[in-house]
């Protein structure tokens, strides 16, 4: 009986830990209600938006924009400052909405390459930290979608991404092992 209780407690702890790790990722809708567009007040709109957020490795940026009217391209700082795509990181995403998962720490720079959109303020700079280096008092890593549903062009805010298939497989594996262990020690 003691072994069975041990297995139940162990399984519950493993599952709780996996759920916490999955829930720690935040989905940020870039610009909230404004979406990814040329802001009326220039680049300060996205600067102010980013200043209110805490970005961590594993978080997702959702760029809501109309396909054929905007795009999103990650660039190096010099290209961000000069609003050009010479130092692109990857290729421009031309179809909206675009989801970008933040997979490294440091500063990240995004621009729109359509016409003078970047020069007119459609550019975003964010700083990404690692969970282990975040300081107390910052935004807690809770799952959320910034901005109300239906407030972006097209009227739909995409839901947070589902847990990765590796997390799902691991959870299934742990549950299977727990069931086997319970059957053996029963």
TrEMBL record:
Task: List keywords of the entry alphabetically.
Answer: Disulfide bond, Glycoprotein, Signal
Q: Where is the composition biased (Low complexity)?
A: 144-155
Please indicate if the UniProt record lists Signal as a keyword.
yes
**Any one GO cellular component localisation term in the record:** plasma membrane
Identify the residues that the record assigns to the Phytocyanin domain, covering every copy: 26-130
Q: Which segments carry the region annotation Disordered?
A: 128-165
Is Signal one of the keywords?
yes
Q: State the coiled-coil residue ranges.
A: none
Q: Where is the signal peptide?
A: 1-24
Q: What GO MF terms are annotated? A: electron transfer activity
> Pfam families from the xrefs?
Cu_bind_like (PF02298)
Database matches in InterPro entries = Cupredoxin, Phytocyanin-like, Phytocyanin_dom
Name listed for the protein in its UniProt record: Phytocyanin domain-containing protein
């Amino acid at each position: 009986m003691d072994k069975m209780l041990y297995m139940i407690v162990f399984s519950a702890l493993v599952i709780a830990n996996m759920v916490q790790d999955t829930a720690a990722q935040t989905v940020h809708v870039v610009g909230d209600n404004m979406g990814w567009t040329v802001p009326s007040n220039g680049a300060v709109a996205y600067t102010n938006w980013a200043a209110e957020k805490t970005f961590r490795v594993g978080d997702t940026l959702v760029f809501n924009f109309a396909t054929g009217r905007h795009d999103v391209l990650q660039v190096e700082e010099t290209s961000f400052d000069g609003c050009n795509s010479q130092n692109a990181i990857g290729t421009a995403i031309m179809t909206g909405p675009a989801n970008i998962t933040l997979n490294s720490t440091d500063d990240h720079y995004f621009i729109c390459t359509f016409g003078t959109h970047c020069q007119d303020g459609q550019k975003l700079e964010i700083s990404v930290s690692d969970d282990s280096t975040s300081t107390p008092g910052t935004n807690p890593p809770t799952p959320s979608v910034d901005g109300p549903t239906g407030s972006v062009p097209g009227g739909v805010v995409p839901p947070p991404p589902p847990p990765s298939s590796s997390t799902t497989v691991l959870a299934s594996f742990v549950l299977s092992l727990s069931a086997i262990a319970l059957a053996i020690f029963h």
